[in-house]
Automatic annotation (TrEMBL), chain A:
Entry protein name: Pyruvate dehydrogenase E1 component subunit alpha
Catalytic reaction annotation: N(6)-[(R)-lipoyl]-L-lysyl-[protein] + pyruvate + H(+) = N(6)-[(R)-S(8)-acetyldihydrolipoyl]-L-lysyl-[protein] + CO2
Lipid metabolism among keywords: no
Residue ranges of every copy of the Dehydrogenase E1 component domain listed in the record: 37-341
Keywords: Oxidoreductase, Pyruvate, Thiamine pyrophosphate
InterPro entries: DH_E1 (IPR001017), PDH_E1_Alpha_Subunit (IPR050642), Pyrv_DH_E1_asu_subgrp-y (IPR017597), THDP-binding (IPR029061)
TrEMBL record, chain B:
Database matches in Pfam families: Transket_pyr, Transketolase_C
InterPro entries on file: THDP-binding (IPR029061), Transketo_C/PFOR_II (IPR009014), Transketolase-like_Pyr-bd (IPR005475), Transketolase_C (IPR033248)
Residue span(s) of domain Transketolase-like pyrimidine-binding: 4-179
Required co-factors: thiamine diphosphate
NCBIfam families the record matches: PRK09212.1
UniProt-recorded name of the protein: Alpha-ketoacid dehydrogenase subunit beta
PANTHER family: PYRUVATE DEHYDROGENASE E1 COMPONENT BETA SUBUNIT (PTHR43257), PYRUVATE DEHYDROGENASE E1 COMPONENT SUBUNIT BETA (PTHR43257:SF2)
Keyword Secreted assigned: no
GO MF annotation, one: oxidoreductase activity
Keyword annotations from UniProtKB, A to Z: Oxidoreductase, Thiamine pyrophosphate
UniProtKB/TrEMBL annotation, chain C:
PANTHER family named in the record: DIHYDROLIPOAMIDE ACETYL/SUCCINYL-TRANSFERASE-RELATED (PTHR23151), DIHYDROLIPOYLLYSINE-RESIDUE ACETYLTRANSFERASE COMPONENT OF PYRUVATE DEHYDROGENASE COMPLEX, MITOCHONDRIAL-RELATED (PTHR23151:SF90)
Matches recorded under NCBIfam families: PDHac_trf_mito
GO molecular function: dihydrolipoyllysine-residue acetyltransferase activity
Keywords: Acyltransferase, Lipoyl, Pyruvate, Transferase
Domain Lipoyl-binding: 2-77
Compositionally biased residues, Basic and acidic residues: 96-106
Documented EC number(s): 2.3.1.12
Cofactor descriptive note: Binds 1 lipoyl cofactor covalently.
Phylogenetic placement of the source organism: Bacteria, Pseudomonadati, Verrucomicrobiota, Opitutia, Opitutales
Subunit structure: Forms a 24-polypeptide structural core with octahedral symmetry.
Protein name, per record: Acetyltransferase component of pyruvate dehydrogenase complex
Similarity field: Belongs to the 2-oxoacid dehydrogenase family.
Cofactor dependence: (R)-lipoate
Task performed by this protein: The pyruvate dehydrogenase complex catalyzes the overall conversion of pyruvate to acetyl-CoA and CO(2). It contains multiple copies of three enzymatic components: pyruvate dehydrogenase (E1), dihydrolipoamide acetyltransferase (E2) and lipoamide dehydrogenase (E3).
Length: 367, 325, 443
C-alpha cells in the first residue's frame, strides 16, 4: 500500500486471489455484473450530486445545502460488504453514507431528493446527506457524529442476539472514528458479551485533513487485540477480497456470535467534503496514482472483462444507464416539493404521528 | 391499601413489565449481582435471570448507545443510570441519537428506550453527582421526561414509560427511595403528561414536581396554620409532555403562583412554566409569578448548607408569603 | 450548444467566490474532470472542475474577480461554435458581505409613498387603544395594577387611577378593587408595611462628643411604604387647593364623661380613649354637614352615603390609616373596640387591604404626643382631614370669669374644589357642639 505504513499485499495487477473463494466462485455472470453496476451507479450518482451541489437552481438558490461527503473511490467497500447481507443482517454507518444506501438497494430518486431537502426524500427532507435511513432494508443510517453510531450498531447486534436470530450487524466507521471513546466502549461491550457485530473501519487514509500517521497510534484494527477480538485487514480496492474476508467474519458472527474488527484500506478521490480544498494535506500525484492503479471500479471491470463477463459495449451501456439514472434522480428531486412548515413537527414523536394510539396527555410541543 | 416504598414501587413496575413483555430488558451498572446501587432492582436477577437483568461495564456512552440501537430493532431496554448526573458522559447517545433518530429518518424509526435513575441533590455527594438535568433533557423535542414524587406515581408512570414508543427519561430521587406510600396491588397506569393536584387551596398555587412536592406539602401546612394562606399544590409529574392545562386551571382559581423546583434557575423548567403561565393566564394573575429554585451555584458539599441551597419547607414558606403580597 | 460554466458552490457556507487564476486558456481542449481554474471560497482555495468534454471557447470572468454563485465563468463547447454571451449583467464583483436577499418574493402592492398623502382622512378615534394602554393617574404617572385587578376594575367600572394599591410598590391588586367596589369609591389607603429602618445610634451616657456624628451617615433605599406615602403626599399637596379652618373646643365635658365611663365600666374591660369620642363625633358631624363626606372626581363630585372614618396610626417607618366602617351607625364602645383591634393589627402589620382602604374621611390625632395644633395633609381621594391637637390646660373664660380649663384645637384641611370655607366652618361648629355636649354621642 503506497501511503500506509502497514503491510498488506501490494496489488498492482487486476487479479484477485479472492476470486476463487467460494463466496465469489458461486456468483453467476449476472450477479457479477450487478456488483459492477452497483459500484458504477454509486459513482455516477455522486458525481451528479456534486454537480447539483455546485450549480444554482432555477429559483436562483442552491439545490443542496450543508455538507456533501462523497464516497467516490470507496465503492467496493459498501458494495462488497452489503452484497453479503442476509435477512437478519444489519448495517449502520457514519455520514459518508450514500454508497451504503445504494448498496443495500435503496432507490436513487428518494436519495437525491433527500439531498435537495424534498418531501420525497428518503428521510422526507429531514435528514439530508448525512442521514439516509431505510429500516426496511436493515439500513439504520447515516449518522453525523464521528463514532456516535458505533454503540448503536452494537445495539443492533445485541437485539439480534437477544431475539435468538442468526444475524450480524456491520457497523461502519471512518479511520478518524477509532479514536473516539464511544467506539472503545462499544468494542468492550461487544467482546464482553460476544455480540455478532463487525466493526468495519473504512480507512481512506485521512480523518478530514489529518493523515492516519498524524492522528492514530499503532495499527487501527490491532486495537481489537486489547479486547481479545478477532481482526483483519482487507484491501478495499478489490471487491472480491472484501467479499471473501467479510464473508468469513460475518459467518463466524452469525454462527458463533463473535465480534470482530476489520480495517478495509480504501481511498477517497474527493475531499473530506466538497468544501475540502484537498491539497493542504495530500498531493495530486497521490490521488492520480490511486485513480490509475487502484480504482475499485476499474480493477473489477478489468477482472470481469478477463472473465468474459463484461464487454466494452456492456460497460458503455451500464455507464450510460447509470448517468441517465442519476440525471433522472436529479430531475425527480428538482420537480419534487419541499416539506411544508406544518411538516416540521411531524416525525418527532411516535405518539403524535399515531394520534389514535396516543396514551400520554399534556403538551408535547412548545412555542 | 398496602404501604410500600418508592424504591419497591419502581421495582414492582419493572417486574410487572418484564413479565408482561419479553422484549423488556433491564441493563445498567450494578443492577444484577449487586442488586442495584440503590437496591431498586433487588431480586430481579433471581426472578428473571441474567438475560433479562444485565450488569454493564461503567461505560455510559457505550451501553446507553447500545440500548438505543437495540430499541430500534424493537427491544425495550430500561437502562439504569446510577446517577442522572452521568448523562453528560453519554450526552451524544441520549440527545443526539435517541432524541433525533426518529426525526432524521423521517419517522421510519422508533426508539422505545427508557433511561432511569436518580437525579437529585441533598445527599452531600457534591456537584458532580447532584445534577438535575430535566430541563436540559426536556429541551430536546422527541424525548419525554418524567419526575415522580410518590411511590404511587413512580409505579404508574414507569409502567407507562416502558410501554411508550418514544424515548422516556425517568428521573428518580435517592432521598425518596425509602419514602412509603399507598400503592394498590391491582394493576394501574398513570398516563404521561397528567399533572396531579396534591393539595387543594384558594390563595396560592405552588407548581412543583419531584421531592419539592413533599417539601411544599409540609410548607403548606404551616402556611395554612400560622399565616392563614391556603395553598394549592400542582405536581407536574411529567415535564414533557407538560400538563399546562391543570396548572392554568389552578392559577385561574388562586391568581397567585409560586414555582418550586430543585433546579438551577437559569433556563429551568420554571422559566418555561413562567412564560407559559403569563402568556396564557395573564388576566388571572394578581401578582408576578414567583419562583424558588436552588441557589445558583454548583451543588455544595457541606451538609447543613446544602439543605439551604435546595428548596426546603422554610424557604418555601418565605417565598409563598412574598408571592401572596 | 456550448455549456456555460458558472461559479459553483464549493462550500456549505460559500456565497461568493474569487476566481484566483485560470488553469486553461481559450482554445484549450478539455475533458470531463479537467480542472479549469482555481477559486477561492470562504474556506479554502478550490479547483473548478469541468464536467464536460469540449473546447474552452470563451472566458467571461478574468482572474481576480469576485463572483456570486451562478455567475457565468466560461463556455465549453465544440470548436468554432458561436458562444452566446450569457444573458443578464456581465460578471461584476459581488459584494463581499452578506446583503439582504434581493430575490425575496416581490410584494404585490405598490411601494409605499415616503409621506402619506395629505388628503387621507385620519380616523376620528383610535379604537381599542385605551384598552391596551396602562391606566394613568391625573398626574400622568402610570398606575401599577395586576393583570387580574385591571380586568376586574374594567368589569366593575372602577377607575384604577382612583384606587389605592396595597401590593408591593403600591400595585393595585384584586383586594383593592373589591374594596373600592364595596365602598363605592376609588379608595384611600396606604401600602403594605415594609421593614423598619435601622435603629439610631444608641445613647452611651456621659458627655456627648461635640465632634462625633449624630448618626452614621448612610443612604437607605426608600421602603415601599415610604414611597407610597411620598407619592400620595406629593399628589395631595400639588393637586388639591387647600383650605384650612380651625376651632378651639372645650374638652372638659368630654374628659369628664370619659373618666366616668372608664371608672364605672372598668370591670367590663372598657377603656375609651379621647380619640374614640373624636371618631364618633366626626361621624355625627358628617351626618350633620354631609358636604364634607365627599370626593372630587374631576367632572363630578361624589357624596358618600356612609361615614367610613379612617384614623392615622404611626408606625416605625411610616403610617397607615385603618378605617372604622359605618362609624355613623356604631356606638362609641363599638368604635373603641374596633379601633383598638385595628390599631394593634396596624402595629403588627397584619392589616388586610380591606381594613385600610375605603375611608371617606380621616382623623389624624397628635394630641397624645402633646402637640397643641397642627394641619394635616388630605389623603386623596378624601376631601377633608381633621388634625386633632392635645387637650391643653389653660385659662379660659367661662361665664365672664377666667378659670382654668382644658382646650383642644382641631384643624380641618379641606379640598377647596369640593367645598368652601363656610362648609368647613359649619362642620367644625357641628363637631364642637358634639364634643362639648358628649351626651349627644352616647345615644
Amino acid at each position: 500500500m503506497s501511503t500506509q505504513s502497514t503491510a498488506t499485499t501490494d496489488k498492482k495487477d487486476a487479479v484477485s486471489t479472492s476470486r476463487s473463494a467460494p463466496i465469489n466462485a458461486k456468483l453467476n455472470a449476472e450477479e457479477r455484473i450487478e456488483l459492477y453496476r452497483k459500484m458504477v451507479r454509486i459513482r455516477r450518482f455522486e458525481e451528479r450530486s456534486l454537480r447539483s451541489y455546485q450549480a444554482k437552481n432555477s429559483a436562483g438558490g442552491t439545490n443542496i445545502g450543508g455538507f456533501l461527503h462523497l464516497y467516490i473511490g470507496q465503492e467496493a467497500v459498501a458494495v462488497g460488504c452489503c452484497s453479503l447481507m442476509g435477512k437478519n443482517d444489519h448495517v449502520i454507518t457514519a455520514y459518508r453514507d450514500h454508497g451504503h444506501a445504494i448498496a443495500v438497494g435503496m432507490d436513487t430518486k428518494p436519495l437525491m431528493a433527500e439531498l435537495y431537502g424534498k418531501i420525497t426524500g428518503c428521510s422526507k427532507g429531514k435528514g439530508g446527506s448525512m442521514h439516509y435511513f431505510d429500516p426496511s432494508r436493515n439500513y439504520w443510517g447515516g449518522h453525523g457524529i464521528v463514532g456516535g453510531q458505533i454503540p448503536l450498531g452494537t445495539g443492533l447486534a445485541y437485539a439480534v442476539k437477544y431475539k435468538g436470530l442468526k444475524g450480524a450487524a456491520m457497523a461502519f466507521m471512518g479511520d478518524g472514528a477509532v479514536n473516539q471513546g464511544a467506539v472503545h466502549e462499544a468494542y468492550n461491550l461487544a467482546a464482553l458479551w460476544n455480540l455478532p457485530v463487525i466493526f468495519v473501519i473504512e480507512n481512506n487514509g485521512y480523518s478530514m485533513g489529518t493523515s492516519q500517521a498524524r492522528s492514530s497510534a499503532g495499527e487501527l484494527a490491532r486495537r481489537a487485540d486489547a479486547y481479545d477480538m478477532a481482526w483483519d485487514v482487507i484491501n478495499g480496492h478489490d471487491l472480491y477480497e472484501v467479499r471473501d474476508k467479510m464473508d468469513t467474519l460475518l459467518t463466524r458472527a452469525r454462527e458463533q456470535s463473535l465480534p470482530a474488527v476489520v480495517e478495509i484500506k480504501t481511498y477517497r478521490y474527493r475531499g473530506h467534503s466538497v468544501a475540502d480544498p484537498d491539497k493542504t494535506y495530500r498531493n495530486k500525484t497521490e490521488i492520480e496514482e490511486y485513480q490509475r492503479t487502484k480504482d475499485p471500479i476499474t480493477l473489477f471491470q478489468e477482472m470481469l472483462v478477463a472473465e468474459n463477463v463484461l464487454t466494452p459495449e456492456l460497460i458503455e451501456k451500464i455507464n450510460t444507464e447509470a448517468r441517465a439514472e442519476a440525471d433522472q434522480a436529479a430531475d425527480f428531486a428538482d420537480a419534487s416539493p419541499y416539506p411544508t412548515v406544518e411538516d416540521i413537527q411531524k416525525d418527532v414523536y411516535w405518539e403524535i404521528d399515531n394520534p389514535s394510539e396516543r396514551k400520554s396527555q399534556g403538551r408535547l410541543f412548545f412555542d | 391499601m398496602p404501604q410500600i416504598t418508592y424504591r419497591e414501587a419502581i421495582r414492582h413496575a419493572l417486574a410487572d413489565e418484564l413479565t408482561r413483555d419479553e422484549n423488556v430488558v433491564v441493563l445498567g451498572e450494578e443492577v444484577a449481582n449487586f442488586h442495584g446501587a440503590y437496591k431498586v432492582t433487588e431480586g430481579l436477577l433471581e426472578k428473571f435471570g441474567p438475560k433479562r437483568i444485565v450488569d454493564t461495564p461503567i461505560s455510559e456512552a457505550g451501553f446507553i448507545g447500545m440500548g438505543v440501537g437495540a430499541s430500534m430493532l424493537g427491544i425495550r431496554p430500561v437502562m439504569e443510570l446510577m446517577f442522572w448526573s452521568f448523562y453528560s458522559v453519554a450526552f451524544d447517545q441520549i440527545l443526539n441519537n435517541a432524541a433525533n433518530v426518529r426525526y432524521m429518518s423521517g419517522g421510519q424509526i422508533c426508539c422505545p428506550i427508557v433511561i432511569r435513575g436518580p437525579a437529585n441533590g441533598g445527599t452531600n455527594v457534591g456537584a458532580t453527582h447532584s445534577h438535575t438535568p430535566e430541563n436540559v433533557l426536556a429541551n430536546h423535542p422527541g424525548v419525554k421526561v418524567v419526575v415522580p414524587s410518590t411511590a404511587y406515581d413512580a409505579k404508574g408512570l414507569l409502567k407507562s414509560a416502558i410501554r411508550d414508543n418514544d424515548p422516556v427519561f425517568f428521573l428518580e430521587n435517592t432521598i425518596l427511595y425509602g419514602e412509603k406510600g399507598e400503592v394498590p396491588d391491582e394493576e394501574y397506569l398513570i398516563p404521561l403528561g397528567k399533572a396531579d393536584v396534591k393539595r387543594e387551596g384558594t390563595d396560592l398555587t405552588i407548581v412543583t414536581y419531584g421531592r419539592s412536592v413533599i417539601h411544599s406539602l409540609k410548607a403548606a401546612e404551616v402556611l395554612e396554620k400560622e399565616h392563614d394562606i391556603s395553598v394549592e399544590i400542582v405536581d407536574l409529574r411529567t415535564i414533557r409532555p407538560l400538563d399546562i392545562d391543570t396548572v392554568l386551571a389552578s392559577v385561574k382559581k388562586t391568581n397567585r403562583v409560586l414555582i418550586v423546583e430543585e433546579q438551577k434557575p437559569f433556563a429551568s423548567v420554571g422559566s418555561q412554566l413562567s412564560h407559559m403561565i403569563q402568556r396564557e393566564a395573564f388576566d388571572h394573575l394578581d401578582g408576578p409569578i414567583h419562583r424558588l429554585a436552588t441557589v445558583d451555584a454548583p451543588a455544595i458539599y457541606s451538609p447543613p448548607v446544602e439543605v439551604e441551597q435546595l428548596p426546603n419547607p422554610n424557604r418555601i414558606i418565605k417565598a409563598a408569603i412574598e408571592a401572596v403580597a | 450548444m456550448a455549456q456555460i460554466i458558472e461559479m459553483p458552490k464549493l462550500s456549505d457556507t460559500m456565497t461568493v467566490g474569487t476566481l484566483v487564476k485560470w488553469l486553461k486558456k481559450e482554445g484549450d481542449v478539455i475533458t470531463a474532470g479537467t480542472m479549469l481554474a482555481e477559486v477561492e471560497t470562504d474556506k479554502a482555495t478550490m479547483e473548478l472542475e469541468c464536467f464536460y468534454d469540449g473546447t474552452l471557447l470563451k472566458i467571461f470572468a478574468p482572474a481576480g474577480t469576485q463572483l456570486a454563485i451562478g455567475a457565468p465563468l466560461c463556455a465549453v463547447g465544440k470548436p468554432g461554435e458561436n458562444v452566446e454571451a450569457p444573458a443578464g449583467k456581465p460578471a461584476s464583483p459581488a459584494a463581499a458581505k452578506e446583503e439582504p436577499k434581493k430575490d425575496a418574493p416581490k410584494s404585490e402592492s405598490a411601494p409605499a409613498p415616503a409621506k402619506a398623502p395629505e388628503s387621507v382622512p385620519q380616523p376620528e378615534t383610535k379604537p381599542a387603544a385605551a384598552a391596551h394602554s396602562a391606566p394613568a393617574r391625573a398626574d400622568g404617572e402610570r398606575v401599577k395594577i395586576s393583570p387580574l385587578a385591571k380586568k376586574l376594575a374594567a368589569e366593575k367600572g372602577i377607575d384604577p387611577s382612583r384606587v389605592t394599591g396595597s401590593g408591593p410598590g403600591g400595585r393595585i391588586v384584586r383586594a383593592d378593587v373589591l374594596a373600592a367596589e364595596k365602598s363605592g369609591s376609588a379608595k384611600a389607603g396606604s401600602a403594605k408595611p415594609a421593614a423598619t429602618g435601622a435603629p439610631s445610634t444608641p445613647f452611651t451616657g456621659g458627655a456627648v462628643s461635640r465632634t462625633g456624628p449624630i448618626q452614621e451617615e448612610r443612604a437607605v433605599p426608600v421602603s415601599n411604604m415610604r414611597a407610597v406615602i411620598a407619592k400620595r403626599m406629593v399628589e395631595s399637596t400639588t393637586t388639591i387647593p387647600y383650605i384650612y379652618v380651625d376651632i378651639e373646643i372645650d374638652a372638659e365635658p368630654l374628659l369628664a364623661v370619659r373618666q366616668q365611663l372608664n371608672t364605672g365600666l372598668e370591670k367590663e374591660g372598657v377603656k375609651l380613649s379621647v380619640n374614640d369620642f373624636v371618631l364618633k363625633a366626626c361621624a355625627e358631624a358628617l351626618r350633620r354637614v354631609p358636604a364634607v363626606n365627599s370626593s372630587w372626581e374631576g367632572n363630578q363630585i361624589r357624596y358618600f352615603g356612609a361615614a367610613h372614618v379612617a384614623f392615622a396610626v404611626a408606625l416605625d417607618d411610616g403610617l397607615i390609616t385603618p378605617v372604622v366602617k359605618d362609624a355613623h351607625q356604631k356606638s362609641v364602645f363599638q368604635i373603641s373596640i374596633e379601633a383598638k383591634a385595628l390599631g394593634k393589627k396596624a402595629k403588627d402589620k397584619k392589616l388586610a387591604p380591606a381594613e385600610y382602604t375605603g375611608g371617606t374621611f380621616c382623623v389624624s390625632n397628635l394630641g397624645m404626643m402633646g402637640i397643641p395644633k397642627f394641619t394635616a395633609i388630605i389623603n386623596p381621594p378624601n376631601s377633608a382631614i381633621l388634625a386633632v391637637g392635645a387637650a391643653v390646660a389653660k385659662p379660659v373664660i367661662k361665664n365672664g370669669q377666667i378659670v382654668s380649663g382644658q382646650t383642644m384645637t382641631v384643624t380641618l384641611s379641606g379640598d377647596h374644589r369640593v367645598f368652601d370655607g363656610a362648609v368647613g366652618a359649619q362642620f367644625l361648629n357641628a363637631l364642637k357642639t358634639l364634643i362639648e355636649s358628649p351626651a349627644l354621642l352616647l345615644v
